Each structure stands twice: as C-alpha cells, then as structure tokens.
Amino acid sequence: MINGAHIIIYSKDEDADRAFFRDVLKFPHVDVGGGRLFFRLPPSDLALHESGNNDVHQIWLMTDDVEAEVARLKAAGVTCEATADRGWGIVTHIALPGGGKLGLYQPRHARP
User: Fold this and answer.
1) Which domains does the chain have, with CATH numbers?
2) Residue 84 C-beta-side C-alpha neighbours within 13 Å
3) With 90 as the cut, is the pLDDT of residue 2 above it?
4) Residues 6+ apart with CB under 8 A from 49
5) Contact assessment for residue 106 and residue 90, using Cβ atoms and an 8 Å cutoff
6) Taking a C-beta distance cutoff of 8 angstroms, is the pair 59, 6 a contact?
7) Which of 101, 82, 100 is nearest to 91 (CA)?
8) Are 46 and 7 in contact (CB under 8 A)?
9) How far apart are the C-alpha atoms of 51 and 72, rounded to whole Å?
10) Rounded (5°) CA angle 49-50-54
11) What is the pLDDT of residue 51?
12) pLDDT, position 112
C-alpha cells in the first residue's frame, strides 16, 4: 500500500530555500542528518493534465484566501506575482530565495 509521497524541489540555493520553508511558510520538519530538512506538507491532491511532454511536473501550494496569503508573504519580504483569476482558481507564483518559484492558488474546484 502506498502511504505517502516524497516531493523534491531542486534548488541553486537549497539552504536559503530550506530556511524559507522553515521560517516563512513555517512547515513542520525533521532534520534527517547534516541539516537536510524534510518538511511535512499540508493535505494534498494530485491531478493529471494532458501534455505533449512527459517528465514535466508542477508544484502548487493551496490556500483558502490567496489575497491574504500574498499579503502575509509580501510582509515577510517574499516576491509574489500579481494574482490572476483563471476560473478554476485565483493564482499567483511566489519566488523562492534560491531563484525558483512555486505556484500558489485558491482553488474553486472540489477537493478530495
């Protein structure tokens, strides 16, 4: 029986991105050795979308109030793109300290 998923974000500055998840997003974590932190994620879901390419994956964080979360993140010094209404949700992207970005959205679709 599959009992979880392990998600990896590759980063040019993993220490800064770990600090972001620990200190800004405040995700609970364990140190598995040598300062490598594994974070507990909030409840998640998985969707499959049609694509002409395989091995392309996205990570989106979800919130019940994207505008409030963007305001909280900006107050913490995080760069967030302007929000956009896509019909299925209100979306933005947040900048990670290591140079990457993550999607953040307020879904309007049913959640399992």
Assistant:
1) 14-44+56-107 (3.10.180.10)
2) 7
3) no
4) none
5) yes
6) no
7) 82
8) no
9) 34
10) 95
11) 94
12) 86
